[in-house]
TrEMBL record:
Keywords, comma-separated and alphabetical: Cell cycle
Entries under Pfam families matching the protein: CDT1_C (PF16679)
Gene Ontology MF annotations: DNA binding; DNA polymerase binding
Gene Ontology biological-process entries: DNA replication checkpoint signaling; DNA replication preinitiation complex assembly; mitotic cell cycle; regulation of DNA-templated DNA replication initiation
Domain of life: Eukaryota
Identification of the protein by name: DNA replication factor Cdt1 C-terminal domain-containing protein
The family this protein is said to belong to: Belongs to the Cdt1 family.
UniProt entry tagged with the keyword Zinc: no
InterPro entries, per the entry: Cdt1 (IPR045173), Cdt1_C (IPR032054), Cdt1_C_WH_dom_sf (IPR038090)
Length: 181
């Protein structure tokens, strides 16, 4: 009977389907050796996963390329992209907080509509955030630092209001600490 190595090569190469008809062209001995390398067996790599011309490369290099391809495919999933965006926004909160405080101080105001505040932050501060991200961040600041500020929904839009006794330093520390968690 066939040895277990032959069975592994046949399975890895995808040489036959259940009906016994060939599903892929013959696999070269060099490609068979590559597919049997522990690095690629561990990843469950088949001949169909490999682009042509890899038979001469080291198994470690091929495994690294495949891991990177799979990671890129994973990052492309909508739920993964959403989670990465949320994490990026969370990490940017302390810098956004500084920008919001700066805009309020520069304009000598304690209240400002969120749309106006977001526009002024976006045009005056170099944050790598879209306007929508800035608006979401302002809401997150109000949610996480209620002793410093509030958001009120009015018919003209949301109003950001800094509390008179709001301690900016303590609120920023708490935002920075929440980022480190």
């Amino acid at each position: 009977g066939p040895s277990s190595a032959d069975a592994t090569v046949a399975a890895a190469a995808g040489a036959a389907t259940c009906s016994g008809t060939p599903s892929a062209p013959a696999v070269s001995p060099a490609l068979q050796r590559l597919l049997l390398a522990p690095e690629l067996v561990e990843l469950g790599v088949t001949a169909a996963d490999l682009p042509p011309g890899l038979a001469g490369l080291s198994p470690a290099l091929v495994a690294r390329v495949i891991r990177k391809q799979r990671a890129a495919e994973q990052r492309a999933l909508p739920e993964v992209r959403r989670a990465e965006e949320n994490e990026r926004r969370r990490v940017a909160l302390p810098q956004l907080f500084d920008a919001v405080v700066g805009v309020l101080l520069a304009h000598r105001r304690s209240t400002m509509y969120v749309a106006e505040l977001a526009s002024k932050v976006a045009e005056n501060h170099r944050l790598n955030m879209s306007r929508e991200d800035v608006v979401a961040g302002i809401s997150a600041i109000a949610e996480r630092a209620p002793e410093f500020c509030t958001l009120r929904q009015l018919t003209a839009g949301a109003l950001f209001k800094r509390r008179p006794a709001g301690d900016a330093a303590a609120a920023r520390r708490r935002l920075a600490d929440s980022v480190r968690l």
